[in-house]
Structure formats: C-alpha cells, structure tokens
Amino acid sequence: RAKDAGGNRYELADPDSDARAIDRHSLTNRLPAALERDEFFLEYQPLIRMSDGHVDGAEALVRWKHPVHGLLGPDRFIPLAEHTGLIVPLGRWVMEQAVRQACAWHEERNNAGKKKGRAKGKGKDASEGDRRPLRVNVNLSPRQLHHPDLVPDTVAVLEAAGMAPSSLCLEVTESALIGADEDELKPLRQLAELGVEIALDDFGTGYSNLANLRRLPATTLKLDRSFTRGLQQHPADPADVTFVEGIVTLAHALGLAVTVEGVETEHQASKLRDLGCDTAQGWYYARPGPPSSFQQGFAVLP
Ligand code: C2E
Ligand code: MG
Ligand code: MG
Ligand code: MG
C-alpha cells in the first residue's frame, strides 16, 4: 500500500522480504550492542496548534543507524525490541533524550525571547503562548507500560532534567490498553495524576469500545492517519467527515483534546481545523527531522 511505501522513507531501502526475514534475526541479535554503541537517534516532528499555527510540541521518533543496513525506521526494529524486552532500556533512553532535548529547546527559546525583549526595550513582546515550555511526546510500547519501573523511571528522568511533568506526553496505543484492568492502568493513572499528559495513539484503529474511554487516564486522542486520508478527496469522504466530527464531539465532551496524524495537504488541514481538531501533525507542516530543525524560533507553521 502507498501508506506503507510512502509513509516510511526507510522501508524503501529493502523491498525484498526474504532478506528481511534474515534481517530480523541479525537485527534482533544486534539490538543490545546498538544501544551500547549509540546507534539509535531521535528525530522530532512538530505538533501544530490548529487555532493559530503555533508549534505546541514535538513527537520524538526513534531511528537506527545500522552500520550495515543503513537508516532503519522504528517499524523495522521496535517490534523486535518489544519481543526481546530490549524496548525497556531503549525506551528509557528515548525518554531521557527527548526530555533533555525539550529542556534545551525551552532554554533556547527563553534566551531568544530575552534578547528580543531587550532589543525592543519591552518585555511584553512575545505572547504568553510562546513562553510555555515546548511539550515533548514519547511513544511507549506495551511492554514498557507493564514494567514496574515505568513510574519511578519517568519521575527520575523529569527530576533530573528539572522539567514539569505537564511538558511530557506519553503516547500509548489504544490497542495496548484494551482489556487492561484497573491494576494495569494504575501506573498510567499515577503518571497522569503527577501531571504527565497521556495520549491514545492511533486512535480509531483498535477495537476498544467507546465506553472504555471514560475510564482511561488519557488527556488526548491521537486520531489515526487512516481517517485523515479520507479527507484528502474533493469532496471529502462523508463517512470520514462524520466519524471525525463524532470523535471530536465525544472527546471534547470527555475533556480530551484531539490531535490528528498524517496531515499531508492544506485541504486536509483546513477541513480538520473546521471539524474542531486541536492539534495536528504531518508532512504538510513538517517531516520528522533533527532537533536543529526547531532552532528557528519555533515559528508559526502554515
Ligand atoms: P506513531 O507514533 O503513530 O508515529 C507517527 C508516524 O507517522 C511516524 O512514523 C511518522 O514519521 C509518520 N508520519 C508523520 N506525519 C506523516 C504524514 O503526514 N504522512 C505519513 N504517511 N506518515 C506520517 P515512524 O517514525 O516511522 O514511526 C512509526 C511508529 O513507530 C510510530 O507510530 C510509533 O508507534 C513507533 N515508534 C517510533 N518511535 C518510537 C519509540 O521511541 N518507542 C516506541 N515504543 N515506539 C516508537
Ligand atoms: Mg506516536
Ligand atoms: Mg500515531
Ligand atoms: Mg500511527
């Protein structure tokens, strides 16, 4: 499918499924060394506030610079890491890096704001919104979710960086929470109580019933990009419009914000804004990139 081919630049390098089967084995074996040798790195994709186009935060997305196979996307190795359990130390590393990066951005922006204020001889120049710390979103896999160290590790990472819990958003897929009982939800609930934001990733692709939504400690729904795709057409697919409209209404009624993934065109962006979505992410605004792509003052994007 075009989604798989175009959606992940790194998949294109290896279309041969036999080679991939062999790879799985060697990739899996290589994972621990890769973590030790710093072969993983993060890219960041901005999250755009739809009301005014401000950058609200960024999602951290892990990549692997493999010495033989080159750049690998997370779909190639996260499932393997999840299977062996390496996802736990890898996920901890991702969170640490991402939180540190968010702090660095925050400092940069503060400094830039101070300089600007001095130059213009007034302090009230930047809007309040600009001074809020940038939020960073980190993906959690099911295995991390069920690991007893999740809460203490997260708290330790935030404290070490001196970052407010509300500047961290943990993304958990809806399917990872299906069937979770109250005990299994406890760590997420504890984190939410500390002020950490919780997003339900790829929302709409799982089988969770909507009543279940009420008992999850989520603060945001991230609507899967399969729904964004239907809005691409002229006119938009009425079924998708109705679905998004309904989800937005329900989410807002429950006090949840709605983020949309995979916004690739202006048409989709304006449609989704009209439908009441709060935040957007996608190639129309920016592709995932190095942290330096955020240094230009966290500009308003289209
Ligand atoms: P996700 O969390 O749903 O992340 C969004 C994916 O959509 C990313 O793919 C992103 O590059 C891609 N994307 C963003 N905008 C667009 C767009 O406009 N069009 C299209 N077609 N795609 C877009 P990526 O980076 O390949 O990541 C794939 C998945 O891997 C993520 O899906 C997430 O589930 C997982 N992942 C990434 N980093 C981590 C991590 O650090 N830990 C864990 N556990 N999982 C991760
Ligand atoms: Mg995500
Ligand atoms: Mg997602
Ligand atoms: Mg997704």
Explain what you see:
It is a single chain. The chain is an alpha/beta fold and 302 residues long. It contains twelve helices and nine strands. The protein has helices at 2-7, 17-36, 74-84, 87-120, 128-131, 142-145, 150-161, 174-177, 182-194, 225-230, 238-253, 266-274, and strands at 40-49, 55-66, 70-72, 135-140, 168-173, 197-203, 220-223, 257-260, 279-280. It has an eight-stranded mixed beta barrel. Strand 2 and strand 3 form a beta hairpin. Helix 4 (87-120) packs parallel to helix 7. Bound molecules: ligand C2E and magnesium ion (3 copies). One magnesium ion (MG) is lined by residues 201-202, 222, 261. Residues 112-121 have a biased composition (Basic residues). This is EAL domain-containing protein. Residues 106-133 are annotated as: Disordered. Residues 122-133 have a biased composition (Basic and acidic residues).
Q: Brief description of this entry?
A:
Residues 122-133 have a biased composition (Basic and acidic residues). Helix content is 46%, strand content 18%.
Strand proportion, as a percent range, falls in 15-25%
What is the helix/strand order? HHEEEHHHEHHEHHEEHHEHE
Number of helices: 12
Ligand types: ligand C2E, magnesium ion
Unreliable residue stretches: 1-13, 121-129
Q: Determine the N-to-C terminus distance.
A: 28 Å
Give the SSE map.
Blueprint: H1 2-7, H2 17-36, E1 40-49, E2 55-66, E3 70-72, H3 74-84, H4 87-120, H5 128-131, E4 135-140, H6 142-145, H7 150-161, E5 168-173, H8 174-177, H9 182-194, E6 197-203, E7 220-223, H10 225-230, H11 238-253, E8 257-260, H12 266-274, E9 279-280
Parallel strand pairs: 2-4, 4-5, 5-6, 6-7, 7-8, 8-9
Antiparallel strand pairs: 1-2, 1-9, 2-3
This protein binds ligand C2E and magnesium ion (MG) (3 copies).
One magnesium ion (MG) binds at residues 202, 224-225, 261.
